[in-house]
Amino acid sequence: MPLAQEPPYQIRTASASDVLVLATFLHLFDESVVWLTSRGLSSQWGSEPLKNDPAHIKKVEKLIEQCTVLLATPVKRAFSSSQPGILGICLFSSSHRCHPEVIPPASEPEYYIQAVLTSRSSPSAKGLGSAFVAEVERIAREAGIGLIRLDCYAGGEKGEEGLVRVYERMGFQKSGGLLDYYDSGWMGQVMSRRVDVRRA
Q1: Are 51 and 141 in contact (CB under 8 A)?
Q2: Contacts of 156 (CB under 8 A, 6+ apart)
Q3: Which of 120, 106, 107, 186 is nearest to 150 (CA)?
Q4: Distance CA 6, CA 29 (A)
Q5: How far is residue 31's CA from residue 113's CA, in Å, rounded to a whole number?
Q6: Which of 80, 100, 149, 167 could serve as a FRET partner for 195 with CA atoms 20 to 30 Å apart?
Q7: Residue 38 has pLDDT above 80, yes or no
Q8: 98-124: per-residue pLDDT in tens?
Q9: Please, how many CA atoms are within 13 Å of residue 29, restricted to the half-sphere of its CB?
Q10: What's the rounded Cα separation, in Å, for the pair 153 and 178?
Q11: Going by DSSP bridges, is the β-strand pair 88-93/68-74 parallel, antiparallel, or unpaired?
């Protein structure tokens, strides 16, 4: 039987010395905006770079401060300030932070995945979204947390529910109905997944 191939990245928890966390978030977000727009899906995150929106950047800075940050870096590439080589970033916390007035609180302790961003330009980032979810699940299991939730875009100019289906394949289920975050037609779906804490 062939040995399982090791992933081309490693996931670690960011420390206070990771000064490039915000820059990485903005870069990967804007890269995703370009990728989505090129496919006619600008309704998800718009078509303008986040780096051009100071008010939104302030919100991201606050969110990062409130979350545990996971970074994925290539295993065969040295980390440096000039070429960070960060393939993805994941933010999670003990409760929902972005839209607490819209998303109902959980009835039990949880980890809420606030954001997952992966490189659209590097082949090494393939499968990284699933790997981030698995790492949050591992941390949750060790902490005795039995619930993981997240929310994702559930609309689309083509009537697609692409992200909902992606997370369903990862074992998440729809939790409640669609939510209109801004009374503007931007529809989101809360997804939940149980964690078997008995395996800790």
Answers
A1: no
A2: 41, 43, 44, 162
A3: 106
A4: 27
A5: 20
A6: 100
A7: yes
A8: 777 778 889 999 999 999 999 988 888
A9: 22
A10: 10
A11: antiparallel
Contact 35/47 with Cβ under 8 angstroms? no
Query: How many helices and strands in the chain, by DSSP H and E?
Result: 4, 8
Q: Determine how many CB atoms are found less than 10 A away from the CB of residue 94.
A: 15
What the block records as the tokens of 118 is 């992966």
What's the longest Cα–Cα distance across the chain? Answer: 54
The top-scoring range by mean pLDDT among 16-25, 27-36, 172-181 is: 27-36
- Kindly state the tokens that stand for 103: 């998303």
Place of tokens 């659209």: 120
